[in-house]
Amino acid sequence: MLELLNSVKSLPSDERIKSKRAREYVKLMRLYEELEREKARLDRELEEDEKQEAFEALSSEFNIPPHVTVRDAAEIMGISPQMVRRYCAEGKLSAQQTLEGSGKWRIATAQLMEQPNWERFIDKRAKLKKQSTALADEVLAQLDSGV
C-alpha cells in the first residue's frame, strides 16, 4: 500500500495550483485513480477462495447479508429486476426461489462483488450499520438514564 502512496507524484502543472488544499485534492484524485487500477488488477487475479475470504471480511465489517433480494441484486448489477429474475431462472446467478412461481429469489451476495455498483452497496450497508448503531446507543443511553 505504501507503494501506491509513493507512486502518486506531483506533476509540473501542479505548480500553478496556489491553494494547498487544491493541491491535496488533486493528489487524492490521482491516488483514487491508482487505487481503482489496483483494485481492478486484484479483481482479475484473486482466486475464488481469496474472493470468498475477502467477502467474509467485508460481510462482518459492513453487515452484508449472505443473500440479497432481487431489488438489491438489480441495483448492484445495474440492471432491471426483471433481468435479475431471468438470470436466476436461467441459472446465471446462484439463487434459490423462495416460493415456486413467486418471482422472489434469495441471491448469493458473494457472486456480486465484481459488479459495477458493489461499492455503492457497501457504502449503503455501512451507512445502515452506522445508523443502527447510533440508534442502539441512544436507546441504551436512555435506558441507563431511566427515561
From TrEMBL:
Known Pfam families for this protein?
Answer: HTH_17
UniProt domain Helix-turn-helix: residue ranges: 69-114
Keyword match Transmembrane helix = no
* Keywords (A to Z) from UniProt: Coiled coil
Cross-referenced SUPFAM superfamilies:
Putative DNA-binding domain
Annotated TM spans: none
Coiled coil ranges (UniProt) are: 18-52
This protein's name: Helix-turn-helix domain-containing protein
